[in-house]
Amino acid sequence: MLKRLTMFGTKSVRGISMTALVSTAFGALLTVSMLLVLGLAVTANIRNTFSLLNDKAVLTTNALAQQVSDHLDLAAGAVLELKNLFDNREIGLDQFEELKPSLLAAVYSNMVIDVLVITDVSGEEFGIYRGETGRLWPFQRQQVPEISERYVLPKVTARSGATWGPLVQASGELYANVTVPLVNEGKLSGYLTAAVSTEEIGNAVRQLDGGDDATVFILANGDEVIAYSDLALVRALTGKSIALPATISELGDSVLSGLATGELMETFEKASALGVDVRDIESHDDGPDHLSMTKRLEGYGPDVWIVGQYYEASTISREIRRLFGSATVGLLSIVVALVLAVLLLRRAARPLAEIAKRAQYIGALEFDRVKPLPQSRIRELNQVYQAFNAMVVGLRAMNTYVPRSLFRKLMRLGMDQAMVAREMEITLVFTDIVGFTSLSENLTAVETAEALNQHFALLVAAVEREGGTVDKFIGDGMLAFWGAPDARPDHARAAVRACVGMAAALRADNRACAERGEPPMRLRIGIHSGKVVVGNVGALDRWNYTVVGDAVNLCERLQSLGRDVSPDDEVVILASEDTIRRAGGGIASSPAGTHRLRGRSGAVTVWRVDDRASPLIGDLPAASSVGAAE
What we know:
Structural class: alpha+beta
Mean pLDDT: 78
CATH architecture of the largest domain: 2-Layer Sandwich
CATH superfamily of the largest domain: PAS domain
CATH class of the largest domain: Alpha Beta
């Protein structure tokens, strides 16, 4: 370890401050840009001005449309994800408790969803809705909320995708809703619908309001206003308490009333080609003229939505006057600034690229490929390099004692959640070398350690090949488990496959030992499935991610029973009836009798697994098919 610390180095080097370097460089850049702007301001032209206005129309309106689409697509994506989870399952009120955790998780993680309802083929409805306080409530039958009662399912088939239905008004609010079919064995088994409040869509869109001179709106069903950023101003001017949704005539907005008759502006050809209509709306009551920018949104129901905003024409005129004198200068200064910025940033980013390259190896836990970062004359960079090198040293040391497979699982699942101690049903495997004490009597301490290391390397490889986790090494024994920290329904089958793999690896190693004239090893293995406490166990700064419970003791007793069941075999694998039943069919095994094990009040039915059976029960399921914790 001292050698590694010396290799990475910690000597402090005086250098140039990055703050001073960056400040000087960008100060010079801004000065050059401002001089260019002041010197070339008189050379602007009208074409560049209207090009900028076209871009502004397109960017502003597309941002509004994208905000609405993103909001609705979140709901569509959520129901499609749930469809993948619920397809090929029974759907009905009897399954509500089983489906409820997934529904709650979907609504909790998707704030855009207000109601999530499942309708089975008999018309029964149940699901989750978000209350006014934000609390989530499950419902079924008499507890169905008003939005679910008023909603009419769209016409969907078993092959339909996410289908948006017509807008529904309930409890004083307007909802957009999307439905996907739930399919079981190719037949329609129900419908999953998510409802999204248009009020929330309006709140999201209002964030793009351009200020006092701009008004943002969304229209549906032709003349129905479902979002309007200046509703408070309308109430203040008219004294009327207007609630959305409302028709254009009820709202009393003369600009929206003139959308249908407003003249398309020819100078906005680029915007029009991209689906944005820019119209000149003249006032008929001596008020100011306005420019509107709108875009049609289709695919979110049987009717077309229109999103847009409008400004006073004088606002655009002022913009034209400003841009007329500065557009060309701005473009030229931007080009110069970009060139200088690229050169500077390429220079500055080079050290970051080196750090990123090494960080990729760290993310893959390939610490041996991480070379030490060199010293830098830039003080802040040198400090980062030293900290990075020290971090690598620490991670290498930690990786020596923490199994790499466990570390990856904990990082993938989230350390805070995965390491909290909780009860889970898993499958445990306990191994022990037969007569290792006698074998080690003729070995030196170094030879004993080398023999154990070689033996455990074979066992660990078999465990990790089947997605298991090595918990600890106890003398010449090993404890491993499946089903935690990442829950999986096939933990028993995977554990049995791993044990057969251990047996095959041991037999091959024994053949190699025989050729070298070395004594062979014999192995006892116990397998048991049951509930244990999994997670961090310890105190203060001494914690261990491990398993605790009676199932662990029973697994060790099964391993010990191997000396009575088959004392002379090269490998004996004994499994509890719980494991055999949990693993399902396809396991080559035979009864080994009923035994009373030490520490157990009742008898335990034991099975012996045929470790020479090939092939053994199918492959591991794909990661996407691994279920949630039971």
